Amino acid sequence: MTQFHLIKPGTLTVGTYTGFAPVTWRDDDGTARGRDIDLLRAFADKWNLNIVFHFFPFEQLWQRPGNNEIDIATGGITPLESRKTPGVVWSKPYYTVQRSLLIRATDREQYKTMSDFSGKKIVVTTGSTAQLDTEQRKPTNACIIYYDGNQAEIVSQLLDGTIDAFAEGDICSNYLATTCYPDQLAVTDVHPMNEPEHFVFAVREASGDHLLNALNTFIFDHCNDY
């Protein structure tokens, strides 16, 4: 018997976001997928816990453990100072990401840095570090479009010319460009944030120190496999 004070005894309740493949996404049948998901499934298996996933918009996902909705929030979450939330503690980091822009492969010579997007349309996930980075760095007359959730829809708009770039972490951009849409998409403007952008889990403080400590130990042992 574990000493985790879970919302539902014996079950790890996880909240996640569906628009950051390969980090987190949802299959057509509603199954949670992704590297974050695999890591938490393995953690639950180690502790003989059931695990259930609930899907939420990305914006303020990290606040939900503090509202006692879930035990853990996951989905490429970076522990920004502005995201500190009562009742929520951060896990140790398990991955470090850089910012990037996903573009059409035919535009790779035209768009090399953010300054090349004057008068262009850039999509960002609402509430994300991509939003913060793009708002800070975009040319004055570039247009930011805010969205939440469907990567495939945004890629379709990128390929048909409706938009000009999709701002994401490099792990997502590289996955889409090399695995999902080879020869159709390319990645540009890869750069770090001013502070290293680490992925962490947002953990419900009321679930107890044992959960956080066990999760941190598991991250230490397995983050190189991420």
TrEMBL record:
InterPro entries named among the record's database cross-references: Solute-binding_3/MltF_N
Source organism, top-level taxon: Eukaryota
Pfam families: SBP_bac_3 (PF00497)
Solute-binding protein family 3/N-terminal domain sequence ranges: 11-226
Keywords: Signal
Protein name: Solute-binding protein family 3/N-terminal domain-containing protein
Annotated source species: Rotaria sordida
